[in-house]
Amino acid sequence: MNHGQQSVASVYRSxxxxxxxxxxxxxxxxxxxxxxxDCRAALLTKYDDRRTRKLKRVSKIVQQVRAxxxxxxxxxxxxxxxxxxxxxxxxxxxxxxxxxxxxxxLLPPIIPGKESSRPPVYSQELTALLTSGLxxxxxxxxxxxxxxxxxxxxxxxxxxxxxxxxxxxxxxREVNARxxxxxxxxxxxxxxxxxxxxxxxxxxxxxxxxxxPTVVRKxxxxxxxxxxxxxxxxxxxKNTSGTFIPRRWLRRRYQELLGxxxxxxxxxxxxxMKTKKEKPGxxxxxxxxxxxxxxxQVRPLPCATDDDVAWNQKVSSEQVRH
Length: 322
What we know:
The chain is mainly alpha-helical. It is built from 13 helices and five strands.
């Protein structure tokens, strides 16, 4: 065994020691697979300088796991984000199916005859995530932003006064602007672990809602109990590693994780009991009831109007007189 192989083996052993200290089976299982993949990639690297860089990245993760086991708030949150797809490669694997819609018709190309100039298609699932504040790192979008991105100038609308005065906007620039906006906005989305189905209607084994012909796609951890086990850990986070970590501390970390984990639910079309009209189906975004963000979310107060300011000044002056 040469020096490079010895270095990889040493880091791998340290990695496994820290993994055994993680408090729950799912975390140990995920990071055991990650340790195997990361160290194998470093071992198969031919050039010493590249192997050294990869080992530094692996050693940094080992340090994060060690800090999480020692009670670091930030390090444990980072470990949870890696394990549940809030960051890293798993996040991309969860988001990738939502970036396209195989059932949606292709939009016409912006530049006639150029197939590559077709604008991006926002799937129903991605639209729901983009327009909800519970699944966004930034403010939610409005539906109009998807059809006409705010990064486009008014001149891009052929019916606008700017287009009539300055002439039509460049079609190639419009294509680039639409795709750039699509890329930067979906990267601000927190992906769901799976797509749930509203329990009000029966669902077949293939994932079809028996009341509507819409097919609910299976993504991520669909068919597993990962989400249910995560919710249980926010109530009774039993530590199975033998390492002492306070239960209340663990419970708070998982409640914070649920606040970063939106639940995407498909709601099928149904009849309104009052109006007797059929409500269209669609997707809704929510958080688990015991998510820390959901319990502490407060509706912001509206901005004060001129009348509010005048009333406040009047009340203040009356109090000063008395």
